[in-house]
Design goal:
Elements (H helix, E strand, L loop, with lengths): L5 E10 L2 E2 L1 H9 L6 E2 L12 E2 L13 H6 L2 H17 L11 E6 L5 H14 L8 H5 L3 H10 L5 E4 L5 H14 L5 E8 L4 H9 L29 E9 H6 L6 E10 L12 H14 L8 E3 L6 H15 L7 E3 L2 H4 L6 H15 L1 E2 L22 E2 L4 E8 L3 E9 L3
Parallel strand pairs: 5-6, 5-7, 10-11, 10-14
Antiparallel strand pairs: 1-2, 1-8, 1-9, 3-4, 7-8, 9-15, 12-13, 14-15
């Protein structure tokens, strides 16, 4: 069985902190919040009136008017992030290599805003007014399908819909495809755009969201004693993963290396993790074993860190379970403190952030960490980014349905 090295040669980001990797990463390192009051629709009567909206994305900068009309926003985000990643990677897709280049994306909910919009139209004007583009706009695998058509790849074309772990699972499965010789290059990550009244109020009904409407920038506060729920977000994060020898043969610049992947189920509850964090811990152990890392070899964890009372406590317990005494030497941070929770895209975006942390040797901060929680007792890189030596890192994602995913990465040293 082939056991090849897998490297990152391109990244693309669209987040509430900016369209493009440079803008998003600079704002992450500066501790800027992308969370504010909702402007896309009138939320004044809702319990939750805040979200992390992408503010600077203009679809007509990237697509003609017909495409803008027929592509849901989450698909637009995915395509543009993939174009950014391809440009950075310098990868040229040809008739000779197209069958060895694939796309694997993660998405939690698909085109929910389009579903609600068309349902209202049907109630008002009847089913004859449905567009034939309705179904192709909303199904969750449209990012991978459209990216494949956009870049001209004919390898695997897959989508994982594993809730908030989907983006990480996409990166992990892409890593496996390359490691075991099934593909040479995979565009991997996630996309999500479900900021609409039904999405906001659906999560609000579960009591999952922060209601800190009067101070949006301080609403997402992972691991803080006063955390009261997560903040919904949108965006996309795509990486070009590539076989090391393939990347070297074409002279590509290598940003980081993916070295391990763990995936598990809590088998416990549809929305809550077990108190001992057993499933999350098992996926971290699997990723370390796959990467041939000891706990003390890991310097940084990009945590799932949603800012909910239960998740943050259970993730902390899981990290301590896996790392033991080495847990006190770890830098752990949640970038959701700045961009909110991008649901199925979170793992793709956070894999990009972890790649950049390894490239630049910077641990992003956990902002709004003002009152340490007694049950969350790790080093969460509070409020200010930290320049530090990062040789190896994990990126954690855990989702509804008890699904867990962890990717291990390391600094590329040749």
């Amino acid at each position: 069985m082939s056991n090849r090295r897998v490297v990152v040669t391109g990244t693309g980001l669209i987040t509430p902190l900016g369209t493009g990797v440079k803008k998003s990463w600079e704002n992450i390192c500066a501790g800027v919040s992308g969370i504010n009051r909702i402007t896309r629709f009138d939320a004044s009567e809702f319990v939750v009136q805040i979200a992390a909206e992408v503010k600077d994305f203009n679809a007509e900068d990237y697509f003609d008017k017909k495409a803008v009309k027929n592509l849901d926003l989450f698909v637009q985000y995915a395509i543009v992030a993939a174009r950014m990643a391809q440009e950075e990677s310098g990868l040229e897709i040809t008739e000779e290599n197209t069958g060895r280049v694939g796309v694997i994306t993660g998405c939690g909910m698909g085109g929910l805003p389009t579903i609600t919009e068309h349902h209202e139209r049907v109630l008002d004007k009847g089913y004859k007014r449905l567009t034939p583009f309705f179904i192709p706009r909303v199904i969750p695998n449209m990012p991978s399908g459209h990216i494949s058509m956009d870049i001209g790849s004919k390898g695997p074309n897959l989508t994982l819909t594993t809730a908030c772990a989907a983006g990480t699972h996409a990166v992990g499965e892409a890593y496996r495809h390359i490691k075991y010789g099934m593909s040479d290059v995979i565009f991997a990550g996630g996309a999500e755009a479900v900021l609409c009244p039904l999405g906001i109020n659906g999560f609000s009904a579960m009591k999952a969201l922060s209601t800190r409407n009067d101070s949006p920038a301080e609403a997402s506060r992972p691991f803080d004693k006063d955390r009261d729920g997560f903040v919904m977000s949108e965006g996309a994060g795509i990486l070009v993963l590539e076989d090391y020898d393939h990347a070297r043969s074409r002279g590509a610049e290598i940003i980081a290396e993916v070295i391990g992947y763990g995936v598990s189920s809590d088998s416990y509850h549809i929305a809550a993790p077990p108190e001992d964090g057993e499933g999350a811990a098992r996926s971290m152990r699997m990723a370390l074993e796959d990467a041939q890392l000891n706990p003390e070899d890991v310097d940084y964890i990009n945590a799932h860190g949603t800012s909910t009372p239960l998740n943050d406590r259970c993730e902390t317990v899981a990290i301590r379970s896996v790392f033991g005494s080495a847990a006190d030497q770890l830098a752990v941070s949640s970038t959701k403190s700045m961009i909110g929770h991008v649901l199925g895209a979170a793992g793709g975006i956070e894999a990009v952030f972890t790649t950049l942390a390894l490239r630049d040797q910077i641990a992003p901060p956990t902002i709004n960490h003002h009152t340490p929680s007694p049950e969350c007792d790790l080093d969460y890189v509070p409020n200010i980014a930290r320049k530090m030596d990062i040789k190896a890192a994990l990126s954690n994602s855990f989702g509804f349905g008890g699904t867990n995913g962890v990717v291990a990465m390391k600094r590329f040293d040749g």
